[in-house]
């Protein structure tokens, strides 16, 4: 982890970790789909499941990323990835993050053509069955998210502090060659890094403190993004608990050079940030001033997600006992 | 702003700000020229007007870049860009820089073909008239600069301290894929970043202190630079006032692989640097030892530019009262 | 030198210096081979001779890289490169490193076609004769190294501290557009940077201190690496003297998308690291626990290289008196 990977306090950005996770998933997924004959193909990211950042990483640490294919359907595959942080000076290791990603193999000749995925062997029938459940669940959720797309509205001219409009932020990025690989489409990891950057600015503007990514809700990649596109990445606060902020991040893409320059929503996700003091201890977050019915609705939806995640965590902990 | 964007004292390099300004100008200019039918095209930078760096930016701050098209001629357009720096921890904002850039739309099929620019609507006839004056003025100055091209002469073997030869510096850069975009020509912003890097080395060598870019005189892009070229960027001191240094920067390009490897002058500009103490207060600059008639002539020309700029600043201030 | 070029203590990574050296060599070599008519070509790196890092470089310093062609055979050329570090605040300069690189000109139309190298003029017959000796010596050594290729074996599951298995490290890298130039093959410099990164992790894991590259034994580039390949870079300790560690680094490449995904050994080299205290003084290195016959053999071979280098240094010093 290098100086540019981290904020001023030395914490590595969540976006950098997401980018490494995606690179590992892309390599193992692409390799797997090319063991068969037929068109050569590239594994394109379509979804990242909820990802938690369990312990912070710092500049100078070494990140170990391991990936495994855990389920295959006819046209998609699931990769599970673990990131372990190692302090090479003390030898201490810790689990920094784990994630599950879904990929679809696109032909290198024609990026719209989805190839078939060679099946993997499962250790047991149960394992396969659990994978199938995850597959069905994500398929349904991806369709639901696609239906729920809303416009990002520009904030008022002089927003009051601690309102949604005050911290809402947008970043515009021109997709360059180094964002892409092999064919001229943007790496999922490059997009996630930009999303985390915007979410971090929103969180810092609301708190005026050092902030870090705690978790990312499922990220859905609705459409591919081509080289030469302009991305508008917008983040806004949706919900605030006692010690966390939920930020909705939307990525809109549009071609700079097509005569018809319609924007389309390419990616959406919810990022959760926490505020830290100088000793990396969580701080209380200033409450959010709600100013419209839409903001209230989004706040309530965010609260529902927050309570659901909390319940899931508790039941998982009990399951492990 | 990330650690790599700044010097050891935490000041963001002027070149990084110029690069962001140019990216914004390129996006808005390219979009505007592609609303019509005909060949798809890319806005190529031909000139940046005098740019002042009004307040320094630091690592961790957020830069807001906004761009607006303010004049169109048949084959070129003017974009005005503002950069506002925001300290997300305190919420303080300041105007870091503003700039005006001229672009020409080149066809993506044939980079030598200049497309027509769709006209914009002006708020008033005065506004259009003022734009036309700026257009005529820059057109004349670009032609004049092109005529004034001179060779960069290698400095003597053991130059004395505080001479022009002592601080003269060159940087050689092989144009790689990440310097280019869409078609294989170098982004104006990438070139300006290199120019600022060289000017910074010249200034630091003369002063042996922390230095920052104060302003950049009009930058003229005489010729395009292709991927695979080798750039030689040379900077030398021309003039020194009590608290500022003027550095002439020249960019020469040559192909590595063409049989006929003639160098050509691609870009020229004058950068003004100031020297800072530990509290970011300006320091006096050591005076320049002139050793030849050419150096004296360039010094006098620099002095004329300095006095002209000073007079312009004073009359602008009076105009605002 | 920027923050990202260095470790936490501010020392610039050896890999960054190797990358600059290679860029200089590639530019001068490519230029030389294109002065004649015939296919345009690119100088491809095939070998770097033993390189010593004579004095450390730090963030904020300016690196001067100068390159000169010192020998040409029918199909290859030797470039000698010097890196001088300059502290622009004090004006102090020091020789940071010098290196000799061998290049082969590959046609840009067909990368497998090796072009002829235009001969250079030598200052004296002795100079040419010495160059020929270096040429013959490196040719023989390249063939020998190619024959000596061995598999990198995965370390045991729970290796004991200070064993070879404990510090053995691998890095996986997906070759992207910014690693390549002109034709879609990886720059030798990009590969060397990755090799130094892995060697640095191995050294830090063994010592748990701040470590720096002291020297690199000849690096041999056996095969070219194409864009879209996955590189596995593995480093393991071979030999430890009182104050230095020798680390063998192997680069294996494999295509992600070819049906037949055989790995091939692309590059090999030995890196020597030293451990530093807070005042940049060398520290004793913990001794290495040997656990197998292979490890003992590699240790003995490393010791032979170490003693040979020491003898060479001594005789060079005497030669200079």
TrEMBL record, chains A, B, C:
Domain HotDog ACOT-type: 1-109, 165-279
SUPFAM superfamilies: Thioesterase/thiol ester dehydrase-isomerase
Recorded GO CC terms: cytosol
Active site: 7, 196
One GO term of the biological process aspect: fatty acid catabolic process
Molecular-function GO term, any one: carboxylic ester hydrolase activity
Keywords: Cytoplasm, Hydrolase, Lipid metabolism, Repeat, Serine esterase
Main location: cytoplasm
Compartment(s) where it occurs, according to its Swiss-Prot or TrEMBL record: Cytoplasm
EC numbers on record: 3.1.2.2
Protein name: palmitoyl-CoA hydrolase
UniProt source species: Sphaeramia orbicularis
């Amino acid at each position: 982890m290098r100086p540019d990977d981290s904020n001023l306090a030395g914490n590595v950005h969540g976006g950098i970790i997401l980018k490494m996770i995606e690179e590992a998933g892309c390599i193992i997924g692409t390799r797997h789909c090319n063991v068969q004959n037929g068109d050569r193909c590239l594994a394109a990211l379509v979804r990242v499941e909820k990802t938690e950042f369990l312990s912070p990483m710092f500049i100078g640490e070494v990140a170990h990323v391991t990936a495994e294919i855990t389920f295959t359907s006819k046209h998609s595959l699931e990769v599970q990835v673990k990131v372990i942080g190692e302090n090479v000076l003390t030898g201490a290791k810790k689990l920094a993050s784990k994630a599950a990603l879904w990929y679809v193999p696109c032909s290198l000749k024609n990026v719209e053509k989805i190839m078939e995925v060679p099946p993997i062997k499962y250790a047991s029938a149960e394992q396969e069955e659990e994978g199938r459940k995850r597959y069905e669940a994500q398929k349904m959720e991806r369709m639901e998210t696609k239906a729920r797309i809303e416009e990002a509205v520009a904030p008022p001219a002089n927003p009051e502090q601690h309102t949604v409009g005050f911290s809402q932020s947008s970043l515009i990025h021109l997709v360059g060659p180094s964002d892409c690989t092999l064919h001229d489409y943007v790496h999922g990891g490059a997009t996630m890094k930009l999303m985390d950057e915007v979410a971090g600015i929103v969180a810092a503007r609301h708190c005026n403190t050092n902030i870090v990514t705690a978790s990312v809700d499922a990220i859905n990649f609705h459409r591919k993004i081509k080289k030469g596109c302009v991305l508008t990445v917008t983040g806004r606060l949706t919900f605030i608990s006692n010690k966390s902020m939920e930020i909705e991040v939307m990525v809109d893409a549009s071609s700079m050079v097509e005569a018809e320059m319609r924007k389309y929503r390419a990616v959406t996700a919810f990022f959760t940030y926490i505020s830290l003091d100088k000793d990396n201890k969580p701080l209380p977050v200033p409450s959010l001033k709600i100013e419209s019915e839409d903001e209230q609705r989004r706040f309530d939806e965010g609260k529902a997600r927050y309570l659901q995640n909390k319940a899931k965590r508790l039941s998982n902990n009990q399951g492990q006992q």
